[in-house]
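Lecture 7 notes: from sequence to structure.

We start with a single chain of 361 residues. Read the sequence below before looking at the structure.
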Amino acid sequence: MNVLEWAHARGLAARVRRPATDGGHPPPHPPGGPVRDPLTLVVLAPTDPMTRGQLRRMAELARDEGYEVRWEEARGGASAPFRTIGALAGRLRRAGRVVLGDPYSRYVQLLLTITGAPDLVVVDDGTATMEFTAQLCRGERLVRWHRKGGRPGPRDLLFAPVSAAARRRLAPAAGRDGRRVEVFSSMPLGTVPDGVSVTANRFVWTRARFGPPRVTTGTDLVGTSLVETGVVDCDRYLAAVRALAQAHGAGRYFAHRRESTEKLHRLAVETGLEVVRPELPLELTARRGPIGRTVLSFPSTVVHTLPLALAGTGVRVAVCDIDPSWLTPTASPRAEGFLSGVTGTARGVHRVVTGPNHYAL
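Now the structure, written as tokens:
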């Protein structure tokens, strides 16, 4: 989705498009008319079935826009990485610009060692982008925020030279060797390294392509995978969801793609909420509608992106902080501060005031 937003902002719309097959508006041309698109999208397919499903749907949307999409079974067995790297090496060496979505991915870091492209673009990978630019500034190794504080494992140590090389590629000294790095993001970013530019993602393509949605009178809840990543205790999380649903009359729960089936089954039984597994990113699902007049979320990417995607619709986005008592004993020492920062920097959202017996806007 964010690659499509970046391409639209850059005017890289393809000349020939397929008719819209998803109920949205015909794919919009950028200002100045269509141009021939040099962009090829490569999907390094994950193993998680829900993530694969969303990526399949996004790949179809990208093809509707006229882009070439390559689906690489990059994790399909021991030989898959060698096949994928071999298939992409030629294009990476010839590319003048490489756009990437997850700078923490070892796969992406390895591919960065192959390309000599003078232009690198990092598009949003959600709230992780906030930590990514901060780590670049501090010269730290690239570690996902929920793993911060843990000791490097054997695989981390083995991969360290590749990771260090990728970090150097992503933080060039300004003007020293002609390389350019852009971060295309809707997240609030602090300082960035010299030589790195930041472009705001305003979700222009999303708003033009979908909606406006039908807005219902109800409240929707947005799920998070903080239990699955070991940050939040499952029992505490389910109790919070139940209390929020009761306090605000929520009827639906939009599941994060990484939430486990077992947890979601328990959530549905214990809260009575209708669990929805979106087939597209929530920003697109919300624009297609229907969507509740109030959307409640825990600290996550959507508290930054939904106000942009739903601008002008009258939908109110609210965020409920993670209480420190919900954190697991093994949660990263960085967790509390990071999650608080996600909430505190969100623009255009309301805060849910929490207490022992109430969750009120």
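Residues 94 and 212 are 41 Å apart (CA to CA). Keep this in mind for problem set 3.
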